[in-house]
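Action item from last week, closing it out:
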Amino acid sequence: MKTAQEYQKRLQRHLDELKWLYCELYPGREDMFTQLCEQMEAWYQERPESEKKLDREREQEPAWYSRQDMLGMMLYIDAFAGNLKGVKKKLPYLEACNVNYLHLMPFLDTPKGKSDGGYAVADYRKVQPALGTMEELASLCSACHEKKMSVCMDFVMNHTSEDHEWAKRALAGEKEYQDRYFFYDTPDIPQEFEKTVPQVFPTTAPGNFTWRDECKKYVMTSFYPYQWDLNYSNPVVFNEMVYNMLYLVNQGIDIVRIDAVPYIWKQLGTDCRNLPQVHIIVRMIRMITEIVCPGVVLLGEVVMEPAKVVPYFGTLEKPECHMLYNVTTMASTWHTVATKEVALLKQQMDVVNSLPKEYVFLNYLRCHDDIGWGLDYDFLKPSGIQEIPHKKYLNEYFRGMAAGSDARGELYNDDPVLQDARLCGTTASLCGLETSLQAKDPARIERAIQKILMLNAYLFIQSGIPVIYSGDEIGQLNDYSYKDDPDADRAADSRYVHRGHFRWELEKKRTEKGTVQNRIFEGMQKMEKARFACGPFSGKAAVWTYDTYNSHVLCICRQLKNEMVVGVFNFSDEPQTAWIDMGEMPFQDLLGKGECVLRNVILPGNGYGWYYKTWEE
């Protein structure tokens, strides 16, 4: 009786709005709304009691995911520990890394050779056999919860694999299943779509449609020919995908990363991006989770600059995603590493810092994907920077082809016509550690380590949740063995240069004083400890940038009541002065020793510092 009352209370809170939005999107389909409500209650009833208990705890602290001690790590299961059982055995290492937010990269069943890194799902209720089983996923999630870790997974909702049961039945000619995708007998409508819809991968997968000779029809394939776009104007698609999501969160998943969310609604005559119906769908999913599993958080993958992703948070009254990626700042960070000029980074941080505190971003230096140079070229243009030449320069710099660069990276999706290649590489290799170690040059190795630590200090002071890419904590380098992989898809995909197997033999060196691994690991640990303990790192703190009157040095201030932290970061390889004046009151050096007055602070090449003070209110 108690649980029935609990469910009904949550349902009644959202029922009117949920029904109104559903019927607006699917007029005349009250039957499907009734089915949705019945199934939601069934998924609630099937939810394990341990997860219901966690839901109740998190209802008491709705913003649990934005605590200042949150630290994420993303990893590939096979590359990190072989399989799900292996990851479970390695949880003590993740604890040693202070990780309490574990993002497992795609692990659902995908066809070999046509997986797009796991983003072409053939079965939403099956784990890739090589990685384990759904029972082992639930066991891992349970073990994580015992250690106060939350688990994130990618939910690919824009498309399925062509090997999905729906796609197979559609290919066999069953109209019910063809209606779950976009099928056309003639090229007329596809050609109309092509007039207004941009291509995602114009070089490797041109066009938005693929001809299937088996059924003599065209099918929409925005990403790759083996990934078929789902038709969300069909309520069956929405309902069934919601059921898939609820099945997965009932295994213990805490954070659902909605992949490619801006693409999920298609409408002729538009660019099929960010349409109003997308926000209706995300809002409905948010309400459904708050009814069935309120401890679950939605993370939106929206690859746009911060000011433009804001609509995906919804409003404070009608929220959509709980969290979003800070994609553009990541790209702007690497632009700053190459140019040594902080103006663009400062401007973008000012935008992020002006947003409501309730908006939570995930921040990272590197992720599983490439770096796309989608910078704010309108801002850069007055400085004489033109888009195409600048992209070329950045790619040359990070391949070690520019003067003064020790960086090592590889191009991805190089298009000689559009000249819009993206870049791949680990944080350490892009910072020059790989080249410096090969040269056995102590001074260059020192500079690379300093740059890696400076970037992490800058990452950890940003507002939001810092997320580390597995291996960055021990300075893992590029792995070029992917080129010899028997899997042709991997061998042709340069993103695997930074998706290499975790080097456990190097991990052992993190406790050996003076090693590269030790210096990076301990340096990051010191930052994490300070971030977790120091009040101004709270998400409630006021955050702003402070002018250093030096184009190479960024200064970030955080204040909560009578406490303040000031961070300074030198993006130049040469010593620089931060021309700041914070008065006579001394600050404590959080990452060093002693106290100092913050006036005209001299920083070594790639130097950084966090400084703290408190005063009587």
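Closing note: The chain has a mean pLDDT of 95.
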